[in-house]
Amino acid sequence: MVRSKSVLNMMMMTFGATAVIVVLWVLVGYSLAFGDDLGGGLLGDPLQHLGLQDLLAEASGRESWLSVPVILFAVFQGLFCVITGALVSGALADRARFGAWMVFVAVWTLLVYAPVAHWVFDADREGHTGGWLVNRLGLVDFAGGTAVEIVSGASALALALVAGRRVGFGRDPMRPHNLTNVMLGAGLLWFGWFGFNAGSALAADHTAAVVLVNTLCAGSSGVIGWLLLERLRDGHATSLGAASGLVAGLVAITPSCSSLSPLGALLMGLVAGIVCSLAIGLKYRWGYDDSLDVVGVHMVGGLVGTIGVGLLATAAAPAGVDGLLYGGGADQLGRQALAAVVVLGYAFVVSAVIGFVVDRLMGFRVDEEHEVSGIDLVVHAESAYDFHAASSGTRSVLGTRPPAGG
C-alpha cells in the first residue's frame, strides 16, 4: 500500500518489530502480561517466567488450566504482540527513521502492550490473580479488540502526531504502488485471521468452530459494506476498498467472535465496513497523517467490535452473555465501553510520551530531501525494484546476438 520508493522500509519495520518483540517477550514480556499480578490487576511479575525457563519442564506435559503446553501459549500470545506492533508502524510509512522505530517499539512492548494484555487476557485461576478488565470489570474480548486493535490504532495516532505529516500530504497523490499484491496480502490475511481468532480457543472444539464461522461471516459482510459505500459515494467499487472492508470486518469480529450469532457477525461486519470507510476520511479533516489508515480501520473497527458486544451478544454463543438487543440490558454495554475508553486513552498517552522522548533523543523523521528522494535508498541502501536492466543482458537472455560493435 505504500509508494515504491519506501516499500522495503515498510517491510523492514515489520521484520524489525518482530525480532525485537520476540526477544523482549521471551525475556520479560510474557511475565509482565501473564505473571502473577503485582497488585490491582495492573501488571504481572516481570521475573516470574524470565526467559521462559520455567516452562521447559512442561514441554511434554499439559497444565490443567490450558489445553496446550504453556510454552506454546506463551509464544502464541507473543505473536499477538508482534502483529500489534507491526500495525503501529503503518502510521509512519514513508518518513520514519528505522533506528528510532526500533527503539520505540521495544519500549512500547514493555510499557503499552504487555500491561494491556495483562488487563485483558490474563484470567484468574486457582492460585493466580490476573488483570482487572477481564476479571474485575467483566470485559468480553475473545481475541484482542482492545489489546490488539484499539491499542494499535491509538498508538498509531499518537505516533502520527509526533512524527508529523509526510511531504505533500493532502496535495500529492500517495497511491498504493502494487494493488495486486494488496489483494494477495488481504487474502493471506483473511486465511491467517482464522488462526488469530479461532486459535484463541486453544482447542479444535465447538467454541473454535463458532468463532471461525463468525470470522468468515464478518469479513465477508465487511467487504460488502465498504464496497456499497464506495459505489454510492464515489461511483466505483475498488480493489483497495474490498481489501480494506475485509480487514474492517475482521477487526470488528475479533473481540466479539465468541459472543455473537452468525447473523450478528454479518451485521457487525457490515457496520464496520461502512463506519471504517467513513472514518478514514477524518485524517484529511483533522490533519493527522496516518499513512496506511491504522486509525480509521483498526482503532475505529476495534471500537465498533468491542462496544458492539454490549449490543449484539447472545447468551446462546459460547461467551454466554446477552447484549442490549438480546434482553441483557445496558450492563455489558457499559462494561465494554468503559474498557474501550480506558485502553484507548492509556495506549494513546503512553505511546505519545514514548514517541516524544524518542523524537527528542534521536529524531523520528528522516530529512525532507531523503523522504522525497526515497527512504529505501537512504536508510537501507537498497531499492525494491530494478527498473534498469541492461539491454544487452536482455538480448542475451532472448538468444539474440547484439549487432557488430554494439
Note down, in words, how this protein is organized.
63% of the residues lie in helices and 0% in strands. It has 15 helices and no strands. Residues 391-406 have low confidence and may be disordered.
Write down the secondary-structure element order: HHHHHHHHHHHHHHH
How far is it from the N-terminal to the C-terminal residue, by CA?
A: 41 Å
The overall pLDDT average reads: 92
Q: Report on the biggest sheet.
A: none
Highest CATH level, the class: Mainly Alpha
CATH third-level topology: Ammonium transporter fold
Which term fits the overall shape? Answer: globular
Keywords:
406 residues, single chain, 63% helix, Ammonium transporter fold, mainly alpha
What is the element layout, followed by pairings?
Blueprint: H1 7-34, H2 70-89, H3 98-121, H4 132-137, H5 145-163, H6 179-197, H7 206-234, H8 239-256, H9 262-279, H10 282-286, H11 294-312, H12 331-361, H13 368-373, H14 375-380, H15 391-398
